[in-house]
Amino acid sequence: MDRSTRTYLDFEKPIAELESKVAELKTIENDDNHVTIADEIKKLEQKARQALVDTYAKLTPWQKTQVARHPERPHALDFIHGLIDDFTPLAGDRYFAEDAAIVAGLGSFRGQSVAIIGHEKGSDTESRIKHNFGMARPEGYRKAVRVMDMADRFGLPVVTLIDTAGAYPGIGAEERGQAEAIARSTDRCLALTVPLITVVIGEGGSGGAVAIATANRILMLEHSIYTVASPEAAASILWRDNKRANDAANSMKITAQDLYALKIIDKIIEEPKGGAHRDRDSIIARTGDAIATALAEFDGMKPEAIRRLRHDKFLDIGRNL
Predict the structure, then answer these.
(1) What stretch of H or E contains 162?
(2) How confident is the model at residue 319 (pLDDT cuts 50, 70, 90)?
(3) What percent of the chain clears pLDDT 90, i.e. is strictly above it?
(4) CA separation (Å) from 19 to 14, 32, 50, 280?
(5) Closest CA to 248 of 93, 61, 115, 68
(6) Where in the chain is the domain with CATH 3.90.226.10?
(7) What string of DSSP letters covers 70-133?
(8) pTM higher than 0.70, yes or no?
(9) Res. 170: pLDDT tops 70
(10) Which fold has domain 65-316?
């Protein structure tokens, strides 16, 4: 991504200053062929790269939360377009309406037919409104159940992409049975007799994430988060002050590294230096490799064994720490 259009986070200011200086020097060099400053540019580029590596090697949980929410981070549709051939979207829950916060459909992943379901946040103002910032209503989860039913019927593995702050908490959603829809979707995940692979690509917030993430294998991008409540919500509950989100994030064990140590997730997918938003093609390819590896574990396995392994996986969480 061009540096001139890149969005920098607060903790990235030193990196931004170095990259800005590099850009200025390159402009001077291009404008005046008699001025040779290539060595200075090279030194600054190296310094900027090292600053990026050093900064991202020691991110705090709150900084990882900011990276997971980065507006330029690839979203579900980016992964679908990059990994799934002949994607055919399926719309509507057959009860009430279509919910664009969850995208779902069928396609081919590296020659294998799959069902894919994901939260989509949107990439600009118009699409964010259309997709409700990835916060699904009951009809979104009922659509997910419909697609999982179809996948189970035809023996198709299911891949889910998680990126939501949580299920939509509006009055209309509650009136239409938000909690019941989340519970049924979670139950459907557990009952599947086909492999279910989940990737947390950004935020994995609360029941809104678990509803389609109760999987055989849970993968997380290196700087994504997965949590029972957002740091802001937890701070409001614990201290009645959402400005203490930093404190909450540091205490909640929300990072991929913490969750891997706790055996809640199965694999961390390494992101490019500086986060997934700096090299979308690379992280999409790495994610595809991780999904393929996870799916291969279930080749030849009987349907009931696949379901039982998933069931036991969640019963075992917290037992052997």
Answers:
(1) strand 158-164
(2) confident
(3) 78
(4) 9, 20, 12, 19
(5) 61
(6) 65-316
(7) -TTS--HHHHHHHHEEEEEE----SSS---TTEEEEEEEETTEEEEEEEE---SSHHHHHHTGG
(8) yes
(9) yes
(10) 2-enoyl-CoA Hydratase; Chain A, domain 1 (3.90.226)
